[in-house]
Please model this.
Amino acid sequence: MTVELTYQESGHGTPLVLLHAFPLSSAMWATQHWLLADTCRLITPDQRGWGDSPLGDEEPSMDVLADDLALLLDDLKLEKVVLGGCSMGGYVTMAFLRRYPERVLGLVLANTKASADNEKAAANRIGIAHALEHTRSAEPLIENMFGNLLGKTTQTTKPAVAEAARAAILAAPVGAAAWAQYAMASRADSFEVLRGANVPALIISGEEDALITDADVSALASALPDAQVVEIPHAGHLTAIEDPTAFDGAVRTLLARV
Model:
């Protein structure tokens, strides 16, 4: 069963839906709401369990998150949108593309990859989920993830950004975080669905991303029929908050192509 997602909305024009990274909520897109308001109708949902969206009782799955989004678009009477996400949001974007390809006008895939987790990566996610459930605290996210989310430049030259990200992670809902880890650990490979995506696509990477490799980016670009790659200098895994101006400039270029 799908859940009713809460969301933020601003602007007018081409509908652009951006899905947040793990372990953040839609609040990560706050800057985009004022930078892109003159360019598009921006919609940023909180995925199930995050923000004020209910967690529900479905088994963890990227497909469940894709179906939640489809219900939101139905409620908003949006048949087609430009769809994108950062990190986990990219995984949900690809799951949505698999299930609802006719509803996607264009793609934004930021700091994400199309491959499924290998055995070691999946086991690491499940271990973090168990730690979250055992401690009933978001501290395991800080211990296991925080150091890799932001680029070294951001960590050293933008302490306010780093502190805000740390605070947001510590405020992460534990149940939703564990659910999302299980869902990501079991997600499918998305290369075949990307090969069939005959829409303009934007791939955004961070020069200092410790989680997404150059090979991951190249594999994404090779799978998509019409993709542009933009690397943001001195940024890590959360490009949208580390350098929002560069991120939004890239998105504007995609919107002009749609």
